[in-house]
């Protein structure tokens, strides 16, 4: 479907395409807050403001902040003395703010409050003398940050049901489980079910740690995927919640593609496709959704429909230093 159809001389017609747009999609309250922290820090302190790690997993967002004067670095030792530094929404090990304090750096913590909540749960479980089994993805910044809240060896990572089967704790070992905020709701339920079956005394949080934004976006994609021939998920390849949206759509039996921008769409994907489902991960801005719709409209006669499965009204407070 690279070119419009031409059915008679002088007249050009594009074939129709229904675009089913999921709601909720895109930015969550934690991402909104993290971006606002960097923007307000730039206003308050002036450029440059340093940011340790990508503030959120989205190149478009990062490039936009760079253009305003943010400087992204991997580690604190790349931050010069005397300039403010922001920690990303995924959270950081305790050693990072401690190092910033030692150096006398002004820092702003953009860790999502829902990630901080998991950090506090980890501390409480350790105080209660329990070893923690953490369900998450190895190497993800949020997992590194959460492991960095506790002493080495106090927490064990599991990624799959098979990992749970391989656990070997003494019968008298007190146990608790916690999870990353951006996991697949269905996979995590299975892993927790296996943990509870193997260790009936294991305790967990009152409500699961998968955040409202992750579960709402997965529920929304479950609504659009069965009605679509193809689902496009806007998100970065290192964005956990975006990758989960692709998996959820595929489990509904629909082909799903992760794209960063409209330019990633391969026209051949649309061959034989009458309905495209469209959603965006929690770190992807709405401007990219509009860009994708505009690109599809270059090729097809679009009928755009919104399929809403929940409303979101969550707003998180900014750090005290940025509130007048
Ligand atoms: S996806 Fe969830 S945990 Fe992550 S920043 Fe957004 S609200 Fe917070």
Please tell me about this protein's structure.
- The chain is built from ten helices and 14 strands.
- It is an alpha/beta fold.
- The strands form four sheets. A five-stranded parallel beta sheet has the order 12-11-13-3-14, sandwiched between helices. A four-stranded parallel beta sheet has the order 5-4-6-7. The chain has a three-stranded parallel beta sheet with strand order 9-8-10, with helices on both faces.
- Helix 3 links the parallel strand 6 and strand 7.
- Helix 8 packs parallel to helix 9.
- The protein is flat.
Please give the count of helices. 10
Estimate the strand proportion: 15-25%
Name the helicity range.
25-40%
Average pLDDT taken over every residue:
95
> Tally of extended strands?
14
Shape: flat
> SSE order in H/E notation?
EEEHEHEEHEHEHEHEHHEHEEHE
Multimeric status of the protein = single chain
Largest sheet: 5 strands, parallel
Strand adjacency order, main sheet? 12-11-13-3-14
The chain-level structural class is: alpha/beta
Low-confidence stretches: 1-7
What is the gyration radius calculated from CA atoms? Answer: 22 Å
CA-CA gap between termini: 54 Å
**Small molecules held by this entry:** iron/sulfur cluster
């Amino acid at each position: 479907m690279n070119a419009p159809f031409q059915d008679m001389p002088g007249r050009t017609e594009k074939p129709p395409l229904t675009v089913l747009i999921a709601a909720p999609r895109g930015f969550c309250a934690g991402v909104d807050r993290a971006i606002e922290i960097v923007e307000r820090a730039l206003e308050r302190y002036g450029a440059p403001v340093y940011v340790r790690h990508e503030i959120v997993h989205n190149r478009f967002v990062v490039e936009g902040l760079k253009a305003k004067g943010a400087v992204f670095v991997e580690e604190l030792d790349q931050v010069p003395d005397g300039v403010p530094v922001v920690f990303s929404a995924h959270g950081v090990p305790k050693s990072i703010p401690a190092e910033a304090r030692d150096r006398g750096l002004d820092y702003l913590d953009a860790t999502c409050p829902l990630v901080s909540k998991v950090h506090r749960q980890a501390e409480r479980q350790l105080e209660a003398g329990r070893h923690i089994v953490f369900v998450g993805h190895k190497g993800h910044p949020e997992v590194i940050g959460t492991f960095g809240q506790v002493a080495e060896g106090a927490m064990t990572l599991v990624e799959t049901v098979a990992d749970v089967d391989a656990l070997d704790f003494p019968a008298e070992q007190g146990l608790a489980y916690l999870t990353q905020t951006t996991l697949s709701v269905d996979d995590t339920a299975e892993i927790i079910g296996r943990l509870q079956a193997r260790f009936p005394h294991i305790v967990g949080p009152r409500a699961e740690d998968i955040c409202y934004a992750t579960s709402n976006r997965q529920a929304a994609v479950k609504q659009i995927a069965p009605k679509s021939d193809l689902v496009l998920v806007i998100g970065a390849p290192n964005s956990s919640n975006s990758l989960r949206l692709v998996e959820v759509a595929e489990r509904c039996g629909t082909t799903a593609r992760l794209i960063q921008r409209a330019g990633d769409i391969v026209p051949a994907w649309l061959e034989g496709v009458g309905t495209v489902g469209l959603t965006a991960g929690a770190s992807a801005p709405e401007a990219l959704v509009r860009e994708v719709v505009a690109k599809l409209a270059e090729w097809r006669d679009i009928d755009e429909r919104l399929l809403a499965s929940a409303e979101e009204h969550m707003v998180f407070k900014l750090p005290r230093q940025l509130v007048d």
